[in-house]
């Protein structure tokens, strides 16, 4: 049994997509947990879904980061429960300080809704062990504030520690300025914490997990999680 | 007692919105604009009448929620 939880904030809009993906790939029901709850039932994986929590008031993810449920999300993540933040979920992870940096307004100032190419930079994480390093994935992005910023020292540290998980690239895997949809520093699309168990990314893997949706490039992120969870159970 | 809080992007953090405003000003014919940086202004009305206490409280508000200190600076003015 794999127990996964999806946190639902007022304004979340990818929560059901994530639930469908989780249930299809894990084979077990995913629990939806409302932001006003104080505790998440024991689980093997927590997902913060995309959307516009609290209407993006103040800053994207700023209000959600202080929701009642987030105290337990942070506590569980710090105690080792794997945590995936997608799009607005990534913004929330940065606002809680679980991951470093900030997501600013896209350099173009436009809301971007299209497919982007990502290069997988490491498979040493809970969520990418089924991927290949250098593999090019096509995944939808849909955001207004996905421009990753961190100071140079933080960026260098992330690179040295192998914590940059995905970079925007072209269809051939070349990391170029032209392939950077939002102005993110060093084309960063996703990063992890030092343990590899907390992943935040702007693109939406849940929107491309089965052929009916137009592709399966997002699927292996969830499959990786399943393999990681199963391995932990076997011990 | 009122606290007036100005939140601005740190030096070195690109400000695409400021850039867009700068372009709009120049297209309206305003010449001589070197740079535009935009930010936020927040007013908080506080029950506490003590300025030092108020500043300390608002300082914490800024760190905990109002500003993202990764990219933003804040400036607090306490007015009675």
TrEMBL record, chain A:
Chief location: cytoplasm
Subcellular location: Cytoplasm
Catalytic reaction(s) noted: L-glutamine + H2O = L-glutamate + NH4(+); N(2)-formyl-N(1)-(5-phospho-beta-D-ribosyl)glycinamide + L-glutamine + ATP + H2O = 2-formamido-N(1)-(5-O-phospho-beta-D-ribosyl)acetamidine + L-glutamate + ADP + phosphate + H(+)
Top-level division of the source organism's lineage: Bacteria
Keyword terms, alphabetized: ATP-binding, Cytoplasm, Glutamine amidotransferase, Hydrolase, Ligase, Nucleotide-binding, Purine biosynthesis
Pathway: Purine metabolism; IMP biosynthesis via de novo pathway; 5-amino-1-(5-phospho-D-ribosyl)imidazole from N(2)-formyl-N(1)-(5-phospho-D-ribosyl)glycinamide: step 1/2
Active site (catalytic residues): 87 (nucleophile), 204, 206
SMART domains: GATase_5
EC identifiers of the protein: 6.3.5.3, 3.5.1.2
One Pfam family per UniProt: GATase_5
HAMAP family documented for this protein: PurQ
Complex and partners: Part of the FGAM synthase complex composed of 1 PurL, 1 PurQ and 2 PurS subunits.
Function: Part of the phosphoribosylformylglycinamidine synthase complex involved in the purines biosynthetic pathway. Catalyzes the ATP-dependent conversion of formylglycinamide ribonucleotide (FGAR) and glutamine to yield formylglycinamidine ribonucleotide (FGAM) and glutamate. The FGAM synthase complex is composed of three subunits. PurQ produces an ammonia molecule by converting glutamine to glutamate. PurL transfers the ammonia molecule to FGAR to form FGAM in an ATP-dependent manner.
Protein name per its UniProtKB record: Phosphoribosylformylglycinamidine synthase subunit PurQ
The gene coding this protein: purQ
TrEMBL record, chain B:
Enzymatic class: ligase
UniProt catalytic activity: N(2)-formyl-N(1)-(5-phospho-beta-D-ribosyl)glycinamide + L-glutamine + ATP + H2O = 2-formamido-N(1)-(5-O-phospho-beta-D-ribosyl)acetamidine + L-glutamate + ADP + phosphate + H(+)
GO biological process: 'de novo' IMP biosynthetic process
Keywords assigned: ATP-binding, Cytoplasm, Ligase, Nucleotide-binding, Purine biosynthesis
Main location per the UniProt record: cytoplasm
Single GO term (MF): ATP binding
GO cellular component: a single term: cytoplasm
Record flagged with keyword ATP-binding: yes
Pathway noted in the entry: Purine metabolism; IMP biosynthesis via de novo pathway; 5-amino-1-(5-phospho-D-ribosyl)imidazole from N(2)-formyl-N(1)-(5-phospho-D-ribosyl)glycinamide: step 1/2
Quaternary structure, from the entry: Part of the FGAM synthase complex composed of 1 PurL, 1 PurQ and 2 PurS subunits.
Summary of the function given for this chain in its UniProt record: Part of the phosphoribosylformylglycinamidine synthase complex involved in the purines biosynthetic pathway. Catalyzes the ATP-dependent conversion of formylglycinamide ribonucleotide (FGAR) and glutamine to yield formylglycinamidine ribonucleotide (FGAM) and glutamate. The FGAM synthase complex is composed of three subunits. PurQ produces an ammonia molecule by converting glutamine to glutamate. PurL transfers the ammonia molecule to FGAR to form FGAM in an ATP-dependent manner.
Family to which the UniProt record says this protein belongs: Belongs to the PurS family.
Protein name according to UniProt: Phosphoribosylformylglycinamidine synthase subunit PurS
């Amino acid at each position: 049994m794999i127990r996964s939880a999806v946190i639902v904030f007022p304004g979340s809009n990818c929560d059901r997509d994530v639930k469908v993906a989780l249930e299809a790939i894990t084979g077990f029901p995913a629990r939806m947990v409302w932001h006003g709850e104080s505790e998440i039932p024991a689980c093997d994986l927590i997902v913060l879904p995309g959307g516009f929590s609290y209407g993006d008031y103040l800053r994207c993810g700023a209000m959600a980061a202080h929701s009642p449920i987030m105290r337990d999300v942070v506590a569980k993540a710090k105690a080792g429960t794997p945590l995936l933040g997608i799009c607005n979920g990534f913004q929330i992870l940065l606002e809680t300080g679980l991951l470093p940096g900030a997501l600013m307004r896209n350099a173009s100032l436009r809301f971007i809704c299209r497919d982007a190419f990502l290069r997988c930079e490491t498979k040493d994480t809970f969520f990418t062990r089924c991927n290949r390093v250098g593999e090019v994935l096509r995944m939808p992005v849909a955001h207004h504030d996905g421009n990753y910023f961190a100071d140079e020292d933080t960026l260098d540290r992330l690179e040295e520690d192998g914590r940059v998980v995905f970079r925007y690239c072209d269809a051939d895997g070349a990391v170029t300025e032209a392939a950077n949809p939002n102005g993110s520093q060093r084309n960063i699309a996703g990063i992890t914490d030092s343990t590899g168990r907390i992943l935040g990314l702007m693109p939406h893997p849940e929107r491309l997990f089965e052929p009916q949706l137009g592709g399966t490039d997002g699927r292996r992120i969830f499959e990786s999680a399943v393999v990681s969870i199963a391995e932990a159970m076997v011990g | 007692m009122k606290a007036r809080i100005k939140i601005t992007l740190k030096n070195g953090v690109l400000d695409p919105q400021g850039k867009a405003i700068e372009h709009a000003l120049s297209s309206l014919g305003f010449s001589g604009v070197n740079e535009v940086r935009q930010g936020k202004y927040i007013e908080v009305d506080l029950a506490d009448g003590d300025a030092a206490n108020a500043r300390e409280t608002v300082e914490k508000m800024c760190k905990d929620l109002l500003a993202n200190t990764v990219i933003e600076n804040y400036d607090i003015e306490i007015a009675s």
